[in-house]
């Protein structure tokens, strides 16, 4: 752990809260400024994602869910790349170092680090008078040259997605007291399911080896399915057709769309899903679905890669193209 | 680069400013969420350090010096660990994305990335309404098991430090218009030297191989020589005696101390030096000094490791112990 400017204050904070998470020998119990990631010739996959108070989580979100989200958005990247987690480093920009916030934060982070076999290797804590921010850089391992990129999608590939799409964006609306909160005023269960999908993503690391085995291209859906698919297609030099009726929705989301409480655009363009989006040769599509079933993860085919450079087309059940006004959820 | 929530806005920002820095094939031109760090069995050294506006740099510091400092504080850690830079990932928390700030920031970052052979591998940009923050995780390589830690200092080892100590803390005082600014009111040259030492550290990567070759323990001095030596000794289970008259000061700092414009405590405890502090068996001390000379880096012996668990003692030229009221510069 780097010691940004009060050795006594920060050192005791690190020892008290974060040392128990540093189970890897390469972390040196956090007494050094640096950590070691051992490698025996495989590729190290590196990904970095930050979450900011008021942008990626809400100031009154429970500290434990903030910790889990900060780590899981990175674990989700590793899953989509076909990588096995190896560890992470953490930068915490905090306004205060109160036990009532840090204790549940560190406990939940430790639980997830253990559950996903992704130990803390080091980090830095700094003070900020502004919004809190948690920046994590996570590491994974793949055999040499086997990281699943974005550029390999081929015409004819099927497009698959894990889990359900759009719940997190609906959950954020619930937390903000928007139209969805009103539409679900009498349905506590649905409100809780959707908000927990926003607060605590479910990264699909259990599917990582199957993604590496079968996918020609993959990424995680963080900024909205429509926008992220557009990026994947651009990187691969292809286009796509999505059968909107096939896009997997939770019962709550499907009901909201059926009641016209929300347009289909919101799940398609809403962010924070952290599901895996991948392209798979048609002949192997079933194999990935089967691997998902074995891992307890729904995998759904939602469309096909086609030649071309135009934006992906989203077709309704009559084959009519939907004109999406936006593709992604936009903060920046 | 991860895309935090406005694909079009962020993607174009990345392409315009940061893609030219992503010269390593493992960066995939920043089109992916993840990067690859190739390894052929050596250890990957990982270090992470963030700089925060108003804490580690001042809001009106030139964007170019902010960029250099953000990268160099991490390069300094790699140098002290005996590691050769391999690349870095960047998280930018910005209030605005104005060209007038980002252009010189990215240009200077690119120059340093090239000069230190440490290419950009990926990153994340997020928006913040609060102070800006730059968090960097940097990677280096060492042969397996050869990272220089903090725990190997042995009684009898000489204590060596690179460059000069205390200039950055004095420079920060100048920038804040403190007592040093007044004491140097008529000496523009000294003011500029000291402020540039605060704004742009000189990481000692040219000495990394010699540190790996000779040092039993090492760290970079970021929080003040006295406090950082105390940490190194605690990690090694030893104590130390420092000959204060041997601590290398710049002419400007030495003059300020001689005039009693500032006590010796300020250079000894002031932060932001980013020099290498290391312990070396007495018989090899000269070899490290010689290696420094070859690399154009002053290396000075300032004391000796001794048995014991008490805090290091700082002796004046009469052998009398100085009572330091503080050991480190404290922000957190």
List the main descriptive attributes of the protein structure presented here:
homodimer; 332 residues; alpha/beta; 60s Ribosomal Protein L30, Chain: A; Phosphoribosyl-aminoimidazole Synthetase, Chain A, domain 2; 2 domains; six-stranded mixed sheet; five-stranded mixed sheet; disordered N terminus; ATP-binding (chains A, B); PurM-like_N_sf (chains A, B); PurM-like_C_dom (chains A, B); thiamine biosynthesis (chains A, B); transferase (chains A, B)
Account of the protein in words:
Chains A, B: It is an enzyme of class 2 (transferase). Chains A, B: Mg(2+) 3 binds at residues 33, 77, 220. Chains A, B: InterPro entries: PurM-like_C_dom, PurM-like_C_sf, PurM-like_N, PurM-like_N_sf, ThiL-like. Chains A, B: Mg(2+) 2 binds at residues 49, 77. Chains A, B: Its EC number is 2.7.4.16. The structure is a homodimer of 332-residue chains. With 332 residues, chain A is an alpha/beta fold. Chain A folds into two domains: 2-142, 60s Ribosomal Protein L30, Chain: A (2-Layer Sandwich), CATH 3.30.1330.10; 158-315, Alpha-Beta Complex (Phosphoribosyl-aminoimidazole Synthetase, Chain A, domain 2), CATH 3.90.650. In chain A, 35% of the residues lie in helices and 23% in strands. Chain A has eleven helices and twelve strands. Chain A has helices at 7-18, 63-80, 99-115, 167-175, 179-183, 188-199, 208-214, 225-236, 251-258, 265-269, 285-295; strands spanning 2-3, 35-37, 43-52, 84-94, 120-127, 133-142, 158-162, 217-221, 239-243, 275-280, 299-306, 313-315. Chain A has a six-stranded mixed sheet, with helices on both faces. A five-stranded mixed sheet of chain A has the order 1-5-4-6-3. In chain A, helix 3 (99-115) links the parallel strand 4 (84-94) and strand 5. In chain A, helix 2 packs parallel to helix 3 (99-115) and helix 4 (167-175) crosses helix 6 (188-199). The longest helix of chain A has 18 residues, at 63-80. Chain A is globular. The model of chain A is unreliable at 1-8 (pLDDT under 50). The interface between A and B is large, with 82 and 82 residues.
């Amino acid at each position: 752990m780097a010691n940004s400017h009060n050795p006594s204050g920060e050192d005791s904070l690190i020892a008290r809260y974060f040392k128990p998470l540093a189970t890897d020998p390469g972390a040196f119990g956090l007494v050094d400024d640096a950590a070691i990631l051992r490698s025996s010739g495989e590729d190290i996959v590196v990904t970095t994602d930050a979450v900011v108070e008021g942008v990626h989580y809400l100031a009154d979100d429970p500290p434990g869910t903030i910790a889990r989200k900060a780590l899981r958005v990175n674990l989700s990247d590793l899953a989509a790349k076909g990588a096995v987690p190896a560890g992470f480093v953490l930068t915490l920009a905090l306004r205060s170092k109160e036990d009532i916030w840090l204790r549940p934060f560190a406990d939940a982070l430790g639980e997830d680090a253990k559950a996903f076999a992704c130990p803390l290797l080091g980090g830095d804590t700094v003070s900020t008078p502004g919004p809190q921010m948690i920046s994590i850089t996570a590491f994974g391992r793949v055999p040499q040259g086997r990281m699943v990129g974005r550029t390999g999608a081929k015409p004819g590939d099927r497009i698959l997605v894990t889990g359900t799409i759009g719940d997190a964006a609906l959950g954020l609306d619930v937390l903000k007291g928007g139209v969805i909160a009103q539409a679900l005023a009498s349905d506590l269960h649905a409100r809780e399911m959707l908000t927990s999908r926003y607060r605590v993503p479910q990264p699909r690391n259990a599917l990582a080896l199957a993604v590496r085995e079968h996918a020609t291209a993959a990424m995680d859906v963080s900024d909205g399915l429509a926008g992220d698919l557009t990026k994947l297609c651009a990187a691969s030099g292809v286009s796509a057709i999505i059968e909107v009726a096939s896009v997997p929705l939770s019962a709550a989301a499907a009901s909201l769309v059926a009641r016209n409480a929300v347009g289909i655009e919101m799940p398609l363009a809403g962010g924070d899903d952290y599901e895996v989006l991948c392209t798979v040769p048609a002949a192997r599509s079933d194999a990935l679905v089967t691997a998902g079933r074995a891992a307890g993860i729904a995998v759904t085919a939602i469309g096909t890669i086609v030649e071309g450079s135009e934006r992906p087309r989203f077709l309704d059940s009559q084959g009519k193209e939907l004109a999406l006004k936006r593709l992604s959820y936009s903060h920046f």
